[in-house]
Amino acid sequence: LRIPLYRAVDELDPYRVISRLEAHLVRQIFSRLTEFDRHTQRVVPALAHHWESEEDGRIWHFWLRPNVVFHDGTPLEPEDVRYTLLRMRDEPSYFQRLYRHLLDVEIGDGRRIVCRLSDVDHLWPQRLAAANASIVPRHRKPDFARMPIGTGPFRLTRHSEYRITLSAFGHHYRERALLDELDLWFLPSTGLADGFDLRFGHSVSRTQANKGIVRV
Questions:
Q1: In the chain, which end has fewer C-beta atoms inside a 10 angstrom radius, N or C?
Q2: How many CA atoms lie within 13 A of 114 on its CB side?
Q3: What are phi and psi for residue 9, nearest 5 degrees?
Q4: What is the pLDDT of residues 144-195, one digit of tens each?
Q5: pTM score, two decimals?
Q6: 34-51, pLDDT tens digit by residue?
Q7: Which of 45, 190, 48, 195 minimizes the C-alpha distance to 113?
Q8: Can you name the residues that pair with 182 across neighbouring β-strands?
């Protein structure tokens, strides 16, 4: 699937994105502990297959799925989740205020993650379903913001100044994506675009009437 865009994509570090386009791409590249099901209007399991609370919502226990791997084949460990959550609390960001009441994150038996909060928060699982709460690896390369690695259904295989390519991740913990590849082309609105056509098999050498941009 090839889709034209009116602008280039900024960095794709989940904790830094604030626009709708980047947030949508982050949701394809990364996974979160929980997800929000728009059909049932409920929070459902994702990387965490189960969770429980105690002390009236001040302590939350999450159990991670086994055998989840990042796009580079590295196993997802509880330490990656702990790193992600503490990073959300400690690093300055537009979203930091949502996680300041996180006191600590502990790792328990059976791939259990324990979140201790300073205040009652019955919406904690909902917060962790947001795009900015996507789980990232604790060991990251310097170019992570441009070429991120996650556990989502698509992995980023190209990020140039005019094109982004997402390829289906065959080891996703759920079913494989139906599309093999998504291509996003940056086509700014200029007069030069009049001679460009995105349709398959089109040649600009044909009649002038065939020229134009196919938009979606």
A1: C
A2: 10
A3: -90, 135
A4: 999 999 999 999 999 998 899 999 999 999 989 999 999 999 987 655 445 5
A5: 0.85
A6: 999 999 999 999 999 999
A7: 48
A8: 166
